[in-house]
Amino acid sequence: MTRPLRIGIDLTARLPLVTGVDTYLENLVTALGQVDGDNRYTVWVNLEDRAFFSGRLPSNFRVVARCLRPRPFRLLFQQVGIPSLALLGRLDVVHSPSFIMPMVRGPQRHLLTVYDMTSFSRPECHVALRRSKLYRWAILESLRRAHMVSVPSCSTRDQVLHHVPGLERDKLRVVVPGVDPVFTPRPGDEVRAVRRKLGIDGAYVLYLGTLEPRKNLPRLVEAFSRLVQGNERDEQLVLAGVLGWDSGPLLNAIEESGVSRRVRRLGYVASGDLPGLLTGADLFVYPSLEEGFGFPPLEAMACGTPTVASDTTSLVENLRGAAELAPPTDVAALAAAMERMLTDQGLRERRRRQGLECAARFRWSNTAEETVACYRDLAEETDSPSQETPV
């Protein structure tokens, strides 16, 4: 196909408080605008986001706000609105970048993005909706019906193949996300300003992300307690992120830790403050049980902060050789890794340098170019009806 493709991307899954999926959605579209000036894009967003990309995308991008953010409206738009608009616009490819695609597939080729399979591998770590039979059925059907599926890591690819027996391996493409270039070591005055704004005094060990069961935070609190009790250590533990569902075990762990006065919950931190917050930390710790990709540790390393993370799934894939890794369920090993990184100056400097080099390899321009290659390959697999009636 030599003419420009007509591509639709569904961004209605975007939420105002940014998660890993939202980071992917925003950065992918922005990067596509920077690397692809040929194809024509329609980006569907919620009415609340109609000005989000204002002035940030080139003329071959059209942002269409036709949906409201509450879940029932998004579901209706996804399943009814998108197939209708794709048909009317004679699109070649529809990209559903958040787990579920329209069940009415239409004549277009469909790219689905799935970030992880934890609704299947760790259902106990999810809210009732995400472990429901209907939600899981919708994901499985989307995986089977999509013409191509992109995943952020080899780990997620393997999980998809495990939970969807019979799915063709060559239907899956590993398209690795990038790290936003705003995450760089920040100057001292910026770090001090962020610390003042957030009310952080003294040295701190940092976690960033939603405070939810899959992130394994009660064990982090226990490991931090082992680290500081009985030792002449000054660090506090700072937990940055919104309090998610089933927060009782974490709050109880903090209360019973014996060091509750040294555990600080910041809540949601504005994106503009994150580079300074990450740069200012003495250590970043990410003890998640399972990740499809895991942005925060890479963002921390891009800011020059030594990092400890779990030796599991995509975290091993992305961080091996640049961060200290420990089994997520072994509290003693996690505490020992934290102590090594705080006390061994040679190790700290080596991991800082390795972390910067590692994070620099993750570029959104690469992600965008590989995604465009997915669109092109999909369009070339069959003759699109829109070829016969060009706009």
Q: Helix and strand layout, with pairings?
A:
Blueprint (H helix, E strand, L loop, with lengths): L5 E5 L9 H16 L4 E7 L14 E7 L3 H18 L4 E4 L12 E5 L4 H4 L11 H13 L2 E4 L2 H10 L8 E3 L13 H11 L5 E5 L8 H12 L7 E5 L7 H9 L6 E5 L6 H7 L2 E4 L8 H8 L4 E4 L2 H7 L4 E3 L4 H13 L1 H15 L4 H17 L11
Parallel strand pairs: 1-2, 1-4, 2-3, 4-5, 5-6, 6-7, 8-9, 8-11, 9-10, 11-12, 12-13
Radius of gyration, taken over Cα atoms and rounded to an integer in Å: 22 Å
The helicity comes to 40-55%
Tell me the strand percentage band: 15-25%
Strand order of the largest sheet: 3-2-1-4-5-6-7
Q: Kindly report how far apart the N and C termini lie.
A: 15 Å
- Series of secondary-structure elements, N-terminal to C-terminal: EHEEHEEHHEHEHEHEHEHEHEHEHHH
* pLDDT < 50 stretches: 384-391
